[in-house]
Write a structure and sequence with these properties.
By secondary structure, the chain is an alpha+beta fold. The protein is built from 6 helices and 26 strands.
């Protein structure tokens, strides 16, 4: 079996699929990349039984066959070859030889017979979303996905599509992130995708991409098609939190504040907070000023920033990191904060509209 392909294209394809190669697996074949050769085409696949990535590139060949090769060796040898095109030959003993200009190298492959097939998802159950929009929605919500696996359903994000609205939701028990956009999809969908798969999807999307991502889904699996790269993931099972019930109806205090000034203030407080020295942030709101203070064994911080405040005065406590994460995820120069008292959820929104809603639980302050 012999084929020739462009070094840059092959190297990029290997890099993309390698994200789904497990470090260790009970199935030896899964620790490598499956290479399938067919006339004028090369298909690369990696799979860890939870997530798989597949892509194809053009190749000069009329052969057919498949084999599994070490992801590390395939990547490193390809990247270091001299020249633009690589010739690859695989003999009957599964020895792979790469040659490019004056450089030659070889290493062993294994049979692809034991490599599991990727799940098949019916493309008829599919919809499209702009790649750049999907990346923005993932990046603005993934920070709130649960790290603790005591509730596995919360280690992923809810895709909620209904009545022309596409919503992504993440929750970890202390905070909730919601990002919504209008969609032309008329179908109704509701499923939960593991964060790991969404992280890879976001990474694969180019900054300047104006193309669509095609998403196909069934009861157990989902496929994201991004620039001829297919990310296949299992879905998480279970009942997700009814996020709509968590969104406050109205507010008693509304604040418009510069996001950078507020973030800088909280970052100063972070200098005296660590795992051994924990303390909530105390925030006194009223009279056009947000007075922020924090005290630990390391030191203390007293700060104040101006804000456009309407409604009742309130003093509220909160976890510094949780609010900082929300501010970093928020878009724009200003944010709108809505409160309903000292022990009600903190709501962070854009200055106008509700295309994102970040909720953070407050902390009761000692008098």
């Amino acid at each position: 079996m012999k084929f020739i392909c462009n070094k840059t294209e092959l190297s990029e394809a290997i890099s993309n699929v390698s994200r789904a190669v497990p470090q260790k697996s009970t199935i030896q074949a899964l620790e490598g990349i499956k290479v399938k050769v067919s006339p004028d085409e090369l298909e690369l696949t990696a799979y860890n039984l939870e997530m798989g990535i597949r892509t194809t590139i053009s190749a000069t060949t009329q052969d057919n066959g498949e084999f599994v090769v070490s992801a590390r060796l395939f990547s490193e040898f390809t990247r270091r070859m001299s020249g633009d095109d690589i010739t690859i030959e695989v003999d009957e003993n599964n020895v792979v030889q790469l040659s490019c200009v004056a450089t030659e190298c070889s290493f062993s492959a294994i049979s692809a017979d034991e490599y599991p097939d990727l799940p098949i998802v019916d493309a008829r159950s599919s919809f499209s979303v702009k790649q750049s929009l999907l990346r923005s929605m993932i990046n603005m919500t993934s920070y709130a996905v649960a790290q603790n696996e005591s509730k596995p359903i919360f280690t992923g994000e809810l895709f909620d599509i209904e009545n022309g609205k596409f919503t992504l939701v993440a929750i970890d028990g202390f905070r909730l992130a919601i990002r919504s956009e209008d969609t032309e999809t008329s179908e109704k969908y509701s499923f939960v995708v593991p964060k790991k798969a969404l992280t890879e999807v976001s990474t694969l999307i180019r900054d300047d991409s104006d193309k669509n991502c095609v998403i196909s889904v069934n009861d157990r699996h989902i496929i994201f098609e991004i620039n001829n790269v297919f990310v296949i993931s299992r879905l998480l099972e279970g009942a997700f939190h009814n996020y709509k019930l968590s969104i406050p109806d109205g507010c008693k205090t509304e604040i418009f504040v510069n996001k950078k000034e507020f973030s800088n203030c909280l970052e100063r407080c972070s200098l005296i907070i660590d795992d051994k020295n924990k303390s909530p942030i105390r925030c006194e709101i009223g009279g056009g000023v947000m007075k922020i203070s924090c005290k630990t064994a390391v030191g203390k911080v007293n700060d104040a920033i101006s804000a456009d405040i309407s409604g009742e005065t309130v003093t509220i406590g909160f976890n510094n990191r949780l609010v900082l994460d929300a501010l970093r995820a928020a878009e724009g120069d200003k944010v709108r904060i809505r409160l309903n008292g000292a022990m009600k959820v903190i709501e962070i929104l854009p200055p106008m509209g509700e295309n994102y809603i970040f909720l953070v639980m407050p902390i009761q302050l000692k008098n």
